[in-house]
């Protein structure tokens, strides 16, 4: 490995660990401090933390790779994500922040149990299990990205990349909790922002300008700038449906629960949406300019998902390249850390504290949270050992699982006061089961899963919505007792 490249990575890793240590020293030594930073996080950190933990390695590897292959026809995912993120900030965030403060909820399962006065504890158990299952898949996608990065960029074994990526994240998350995750996400979001501007701009400059780059792209792929090339209406719906997933992503909406106040959310939305727009355009540009650069320089590229790595190594001095490649690590690590924290919170507070040892002191719950972080990371590494795993495929499966099981339920719990506990349980189970059947059951054309024809979040989201409405109406006699906190939230928002 080039010594300049190694130096850049060493600086990056040291900075992440230093932030984790700082958070450990300054954080409130309580469960609330560890899981939500004491609800004192500012709008800028909230916005970039939500963005960085949202986008993960697929933004710098999966999305550019898709653009490299298909051109602008792959950009529909970005359109759907922009719309979904804006709706999430505008409609979900204020109500969720207010409601979780009214009920003093620290986790999503905690919020759902409080919202529906669930004395049976079924909502907490089911939601915690859903989080653990889908985050194991989601976290593994980030670890796969780390393995691919170390193998293709640093010429190190894929397996070693898995352990380095997960190991650094585990260390700073283990000690610093939510504050460390948010602060590192902020720095990582800045790195991603700069990298996704620099790489396509320098590539275009090297190719002779925008018009020359466009000409080369069209020579390689005449339909590269055609938004609907080879894309059916169902495919466009499937891509844009990614935006539906935002309402149910625990590692994103937990940011809204931790912000210092509802009024700060408007500032966070402006920062977050601006960051997202620029980085998505940058990611799409990397794929297109990479296509032109590979053709013009007659380079070989075996894996389209590594186009950002190739451009970083080819266009820049190794020291600068090291920081650009750190952007991929930043995207990967920011997502992994958020997912590890949310999963550990479900294991420690929603399962262990509530069902195994209700009298456990806070320091013991924190210890279980930290052990859980380590165990979930180990499971993700195990899943990631399948080196043929597609980053975008793993992310899409987990995104759909959360979007369908939690998305409709979060919306109904915040906006429809007649939602009942039975309706909530039915919706969550229906959404999760529909997604799993759609992904794994060979009942489509030629025994292929139905997900090859329509993205699983669409039927999952619709089925969960129908289940919530039908079951809630059938059990509406039990909804009156659930409206007290709902009314308190409405008054506080007004």
Task: Please explain how this structure is put together.
This protein is mainly α and 494 residues long. The protein has a single domain, classed as Up-down Bundle (Sodium/glucose cotransporter), CATH 1.20.1730. The chain is built from 19 helices and no strands. The chain is globular and about 70 Å long. The model has no long low-confidence stretch (mean pLDDT 84). GO terms for molecular function: L-proline transmembrane transporter activity; proline:sodium symporter activity; sodium ion binding.
The CATH topology, please?
Answer: Sodium/glucose cotransporter
For the sheet with most strands, the description reads: none
Strand tally: 0
The N- to C-terminal Cα distance equals: 58 Å
Report mean pLDDT, rounded to a whole number. Answer: 84
Helix content: over 70%
List the domain count as a whole number. Answer: 1
Tally of helical runs: 19
Q: List low-pLDDT spans.
A: none
CATH architecture type:
Up-down Bundle
What is the name of the CATH class? Answer: Mainly Alpha
Can you tell me the overall shape?
Answer: globular
> Which percent band covers the strand fraction?
under 5%
Please name the fourth-level CATH homologous superfamily: Sodium/glucose cotransporter
